[in-house]
Amino acid sequence: MTLIVEATGDNIRKAAARLLEGGLVAFPTETVYGLGADATNDRAVAAIFEAKGRPSFNPVIVHVNDKAEAEAIVEFNPKAALLASVFWPGPLTMILPRKADAKLSLLTSAGLPTQAVRASNHPVARELIKALGRPIAAPSANASGTLSPTTPQHVAESLGERAGMILAGGKSAVGLESTVVDMTGPVPVLLRPGAVTLEDLKMQLGEVNVELEALNDAPKSPGQLLKHYAPKTPLRLRAVDVKPGEALLAFGSIRFMGVAGSGAAKDMPQNMRMNLSETGDLNEAAANLFSMLHQLDARGFRSIAVMNIPETGLGLAINDRLRRAAGAQKP
Ligand code: TXA
Ligand code: MG
Fold it and tell me: Looking at the structure, do residues 40 and 160 belong to the same domain, yes or no?
């Protein structure tokens, strides 16, 4: 298959079909090219991280076509509604509280209660979202730690076949990632500067704070780390057995796992154990990670024993999130 295809109506339909099957599609936006997945499909969103080789699960932007579509996912406040009416569709991403009933993978927000949303004005991005009939999760379509792509060739050079299919839509007009504003607090916070400028935002909102380090991929101090999902229940990582009263988050077979002092993990009650992937599939485990942690956390166990997950491929990102969720706990 040719990787780069012209964004004809026919190819956009093929791309949407590919997304619906859980595949990935790189597509143009006015800022940079995005690597898209069906935002409602856990495994598809996990595949984005796999393709980019991201060592951690950063939350990703969910792309919609307008405010009405965004309202199915996030809770708007008056300031956010104002920004949407002025700057959408366009190069502005807003972080808003995620709705409890949002039909979205928990991976898009990396388990956080907030969700980044944006409406692009690129006709190909818009047609693709329309053809899929669902929101599209998409970070920039480049391998982790490399420059964001502004042409289909950049995407092909950076990701190759891992991009799945690349819809060509010319050179990105803006060429810089979208402006990211956190709209969840009383005063909006600019997290990433972009084509919608601080002055543009202040003109609409009055007061705007600036915290540019918050989204730094390699933060300089732990205080600058992006907020991350933290369960209430303590996690015990690389567990080789289960302690009495503990829940189990398994990975792979639990045939040889014991409960300290009393029998086998496989005989534990169903509500005390979940398996990220019985077959040891890292993509499946990534797709299940946040939803299973949320479920076990809600049941009030004294701790959760998490089985060892290999430090390869998506395992790096899974372990990174588990270590953060476990606090200062060493791997
Ligand atoms: O221009 C763009 O925004 C491109 C195109 C494809 O839309 N997308 C893009 O996505 O640059 P990405 O994932 O490379 O950058 C999104 C940034 C990341 O730094 C991520 O950590 C941050 O937004 N972000 C996303 N959701 C967040 C949330 N709930 N809270 C805080 N930061 C968030
Ligand atoms: Mg990026």
Answer: yes
Give yes or no: residues 116 and 254 share one domain: no
Residue 102's Cα: distance from chain center in Å?
14
pLDDT in tens, the chain (331 residues): 579 999 999 999 999 999 999 999 999 999 999 999 999 999 999 999 999 988 788 899 999 999 999 999 999 999 999 999 999 999 999 999 999 999 999 999 998 999 999 999 999 999 999 999 999 999 999 998 788 899 999 999 999 999 999 999 999 988 889 999 999 999 999 998 888 988 999 999 999 999 876 554 443 333 334 556 778 899 999 999 999 999 999 999 999 999 998 899 999 999 999 999 999 999 999 888 988 998 999 999 999 999 999 988 888 888 888 988 887 443 3
Atom of ligand 1 at shortest range from CA of 116: 26
Which tokens hold the place of 22?
């859980």
Distances from the Cα of 11 to the Cα of 5, 6, 22, 162, 231, angstroms:
7, 7, 17, 18, 42
Does residue 96 fall inside a structural domain?
Answer: yes
What are the CB-based long-range contacts (under 8 Å, 24+) for 212-221?
214/182, 214/189, 215/180, 215/191, 217/58, 217/145
Residue nearest atom 3 in ligand 1 by C-alpha distance? 178
Residues 201 and 253 in one domain: no
Gap between the Cα atoms of 31 and 120, Å rounded: 8
Ligand 1 interacting residues, C-beta cut-off 6 A: 29, 31-32, 34, 58-61, 93, 95, 109, 112, 114-116, 118, 138-140, 177-178, 180, 215, 226
User: Domain range spanning residue 142?
Assistant: 3-210
| Residue pointed to by tokens 């004005």 | 121
Tokens of 111: 């388990």
Tokens of 110: 């990396």
In Å, how far are 69, 72, 107 from 62, measured between CA atoms? 11, 12, 11
